């Protein structure tokens, strides 16, 4: 019997990342649950294992090269060569441009862009050797521009260019690279956005739904379903795409 494929999901302690990790585990993959906090990682890994899956909690600072190297090596040693990578780790440091600090800009760039670069570079060594790989980057509809998010929007737009370039470079090795760009998804991060705006989460949802043709806001499970498809072997001819999961047309 062949061993299951191994997936790494970053930012997997909660929200979209946790949903993706649990969905991939339900699909039969062994999953490395990656985040900064080991305890939070362990909770998601435990849920996966209690549901009959195989998981490993791996604390990694995705913006730190040594941490990434150690973490990916540990995954390969404990679970097997990682051939699916979901770059989901992200942070918000929202501010209007004239008030945005250097640290607010750099923190967002380091986690989203540098983190995805370091994780992809480390994982692709295993993917190209195996002749199979799936890289899924989490962009956002904010890549199209969003007030108070010059840093976040630039990082998410950058991930789209990064995605298309990796698709070109790695495609001949059996490795596809795609991006998911969520719209309004109900998570702790969007709750933080509501708090920043000085409104209740319910008010933010009510306002957001007005502009969503599907008539509802999204859930982490909506994103996990698309990640599940992109990670499949039979999704091998989908490469270099940005899929907006926003309840209506974007892009």
The average pLDDT score comes to 96
CATH topology of the largest domain: Rossmann fold
Strand order of the largest sheet: 3-2-1-4-5-6-7
Globally, the shape reads globular
The N- and C-terminal alpha carbons lie at a distance of 43 Å
Helix percentage: 40-55%
The helix count comes to: 8
According to CATH, the homologous superfamily of the largest domain is NAD(P)-binding Rossmann-like Domain
Work out the number of β strands. Answer: 7
Report low-confidence residues grouped into runs of 5 or more.
Answer: none
Order of helices and strands: EHEHEHEHEHEHHHE
Oligomeric state of shown chains: single chain
Per CATH, which architecture of the largest domain? Answer: 3-Layer(aba) Sandwich
User: What portion of the residues fall into strands of 2 or more residues?
Assistant: 15-25%
Tell me the structural class.
Answer: alpha/beta
Radius of gyration: 17 Å
Report a brief summary of the structure.
Helices cover 48% and strands 16% of the residues. It is α/β, with parallel strands linked by helices.
Write the layout of secondary structure elements.
Blueprint (H helix, E strand, L loop, with lengths): L5 E5 L4 H12 L3 E6 L2 H13 L4 E5 L5 H14 L3 E6 L14 H29 L2 E6 L11 H21 L4 E8 L5 H10 L3 H9 L10 H12 L10 E4 L6
Parallel strand pairs: 1-2, 1-4, 2-3, 4-5, 5-6, 6-7
Helix pairs in contact: 1-2, 1-8, 3-4, 4-5
Report on the structure:
The chain has 251 residues and is of the alpha/beta class. It has two domains: 6-183 and 218-244, 3-Layer(aba) Sandwich (Rossmann fold); 186-217, no CATH class. Helix content is 48%, strand content 16%. The chain has helices at residues 15-26, 38-50, 65-78, 102-130, 150-170, 188-197, 201-209, 220-231, and strands at residues 6-10, 30-35, 55-59, 82-87, 133-138, 175-182, 242-245. It has a seven-stranded parallel beta sheet, sandwiched between helices. Strand 2 (30-35), helix 2 (38-50) and strand 3 form a beta-alpha-beta unit. Helix 4 runs parallel beside helix 5. The longest helix is centred in the middle third of the chain and has 29 residues, at 102-130. The protein is globular and about 50 Å long. It starts with 5 loop residues before the first strand and ends in a 6-residue tail after the last strand.
């Amino acid at each position: 019997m062949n061993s299951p494929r191994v997936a790494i999901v970053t930012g997997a302690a909660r929200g979209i990342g946790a949903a993706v990790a649990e969905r991939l585990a339900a699909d039969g993959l062994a999953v490395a649950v990656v985040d900064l906090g080991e305890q939070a990682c362990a909770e998601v890994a435990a849920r996966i294992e209690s549901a009959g899956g195989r998981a490993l909690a791996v604390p990694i600072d995705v913006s730190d090269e040594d941490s990434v190297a150690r973490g990916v090596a540990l995954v390969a040693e404990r679970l097997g060569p990682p051939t699916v990578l979901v770059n989901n780790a992200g942070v918000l440091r929202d501010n209007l441009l004239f008030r945005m600090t250097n640290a607010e800009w750099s923190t967002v760039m380091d986690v989203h862009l540098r983190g995805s670069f370091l994780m992809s570079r480390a994982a692709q060594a295993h993917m190209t050797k195996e002749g199979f790989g799936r890289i899924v980057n989490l962009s956002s509809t904010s890549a199209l521009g969003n007030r108070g998010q010059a840093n976040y929007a630039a990082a998410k737009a950058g991930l789209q260019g990064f995605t298309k370039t990796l698709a070109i470079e790695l495609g001949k090795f059996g490795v596809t690279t795609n991006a998911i760009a969520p719209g309004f998804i109900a998570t702790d991060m969007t709750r933080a956005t509501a708090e920043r705006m000085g409104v209740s989460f319910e008010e933010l949802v009510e306002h957001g739904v007005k502009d969503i043709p599907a008539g509802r806001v999204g859930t982490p499970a909506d994103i996990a379903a698309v990640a599940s498809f992109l990670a499949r072997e039979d999704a091998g001819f989908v490469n270099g795409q940005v899929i907006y999961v926003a309840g209506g047309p974007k892009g």
